[in-house]
Specification:
Largest sheet: 4 strands, mixed
Shape: globular
Number of domains: 2
CATH class of the largest domain: Alpha Beta
Bound molecules: pyridoxal-5'-phosphate
Helix content: 40-55%
Radius of gyration: 23 Å
Number of helices: 17
Number of strands: 15
Structural class: alpha/beta
Strand order of the largest sheet: 1-2-3-13
CATH topology of the largest domain: Aspartate Aminotransferase, domain 2
CATH superfamily of the largest domain: Type I PLP-dependent aspartate aminotransferase-like (Major domain)
């Protein structure tokens, strides 16, 4: 089969996730056929640097034979068995032990799921159940953040704060509220605030929401250490300490969604470690298996776990694929390789600082209002060079830049006019150089294209 054959069948039968079906049908999908290291190769033979590690998950890169072998060996031994009805199997037990060893000291239990969305469904059930068992059943409200992404099941969608998602498929799960996100460039800068004051204001907004709902009614606050899909939003340094203080003051659980930040992305095993958070629950997925097989889970702190265990009786929740043996075996091997190769330390001490230095230089580009990164996550905020302000949304400059990136051999994603990267954690210095060079070329091409568009009406005006 050739590219047009795949595209025809794809158009006829395949409804893609997060996609305008009709528009894609007209344009045709790009067919990705192979992966090697940090590169993907499409059906036309183009070699593309995957600046997004798939969807924030292929942390060890493509083509790791050890992971393939781990899957094959486990499938020969026991491809599937469940963890219901008083049974388990070696991969699930070993993975649970390894995760709890790598996680901060008070997180000693894990509940497995098939994905990050299922992990956040589990979170919602657990926090409400926890407070019910504690004799405070009215503590049901969960506070999330605007523009947050916590998955696409009904609970994930409700916990998340993406307005276009909320506008489809409601009503949402009741008793979930949202507060402002600590996105200084998008929201604090325009209000003329310095970043640290803005970070404190965001924490104050959380406190105000708690008081509005009544502290006796609020179960938990959920947030990513660094917001990924929302636009690689790295909060000001003042934000997390202030949020921690608010949560402690009102005895509200902290859920740190580590689906992206976990497993080395910020240069520590978990984003919570980077920021000194002590979350009660940590949903995980994505990098857990480097995306080779689907698996997620929730790491549960002693406070919640002890209550669920000692006072809870049966917890009526779980998935057919909770702790799937083949997925667990691959995740376990993935973590073993990361430890053996010192991947997390290399992100912290070498690759993160190197990317930061190269990435900062893009901040001087006329289209870029801010270049930020932490570990191996980064963002560029696009602005109109003429005014220093954001472009009109209708110009869809971010999408244009993303398409030009793809054309120049780089996957960089756009969230509005924020360009984001999250490359595999095994990227080399030379590959980081290539990534930055291609990003710069795409910015130049975007600027050239905009110059054409913006000058066109003048050419049409009769002199
Ligand atoms: C991707 C993501 C999820 C959802 O994970 P899925 O495996 O796609 O269900 C949840 N939270 C965050 C922070 C994510 O980035």
């Amino acid at each position: 089969m050739q590219t047009p054959d795949y595209q025809r069948l794809d158009r006829a039968h395949h409804l893609h996730p997060f996609t305008d079906f009709k528009a894609l049908g007209e344009e045709g999908s790009r067919i990705i056929e192979r992966g090697e290291g940090v590169y993907i190769i499409d059906s036309e033979g183009n070699r593309i640097l995957d600046g997004m590690a798939g969807l924030w998950c292929v942390n060890l890169g493509y083509g790791r034979e050890e992971l393939v072998e781990a899957a094959a060996a486990q499938m020969r031994q026991l491809p599937y068995y469940n963890n219901f009805f008083k049974t388990t199997h070696p991969p699930a037990v070993k993975l649970a032990e390894t995760l709890c060893r790598l996680a901060p000291g008070h997180l000693n239990r894990v509940f497995f799921t098939g994905s990050g969305s299922e992990a956040n469904d589990t979170v919602l059930r657990m926090v409400r159940r926890y407070w019910a068992l504690k004799g405070q059943p009215e503590k049901q409200w969960v506070i999330g953040r605007e523009n947050a992404y916590h998955g696409s099941t009904v609970a994930g969608l409700s916990l998340g704060g993406m307005a276009p998602m909320h506008a489809q498929g409601g009503p949402l799960v009741p008793k979930i509220a949202h507060v402002r996100q600590p996105w200084w460039f998008g929201e604090g800068r325009s209000e003329g605030q310095d970043p640290e004051a803005f970070g404190r204001d965001c924490a104050a907004a959380l406190e105000a929401k708690i008081l509005e709902l009544g502290e006796e009614n609020v179960a938990a606050f959920i947030a990513e250490p660094v917001q990924g899909a929302g636009g690689a939003i790295i909060p000001p340094a003042s934000y997390w300490p202030a949020v921690k203080a608010v949560l402690a003051k009102y005895d509200i659980l902290l859920v740190a969604d580590e689906v992206i930040c976990g497993f080395g992305r910020l240069g520590e095993w978990f984003g919570s470690v980077h920021y000194g958070l002590e979350p009660d629950l940590m949903p995980i997925a994505k990098g857990l298996s480097s995306g080779y097989l689907p698996i997620g889970g929730v790491l549960v702190g002693d406070r919640v776990a002890d209550t669920l265990i000692e006072e809870g009786g049966e917890f009526f929740h779980g998935f057919t694929y909770s702790g799937h043996p083949t997925c667990a075996a691959v995740a376990l091997k993935n973590l073993e390789l990361m430890e053996a190769e010192g991947v997390v330390e290399r992100v912290r001490d070498d690759l993160g600082p190197y990317l930061a230095q190269r990435w900062q230089a893009l901040g001087a580009h006329p289209l870029v209002g801010e270049a930020r990164s932490l570990g191996l996550i980064g963002a560029l905020e696009l602005i109109d060079p003429a005014t220093g302000e954001r472009f009109d949304e209708s110009l869809a400059v971010g999408n244009l830049c993303r398409d030009l990136c793809f054309a120049s051999g780089l996957v960089m994603r756009s969230v509005g006019d924020t360009m984001i990267i999250s490359p595999p954690l095994v990227i080399t210095h030379a590959e980081i150089d290539e990534l930055v060079d291609k990003a710069r070329a795409a910015l130049d091409a975007t600027l050239a294209r905009l110059a054409d568009t913006l000058t066109e009406p003048q050419q049409e005006t009769p002199a």
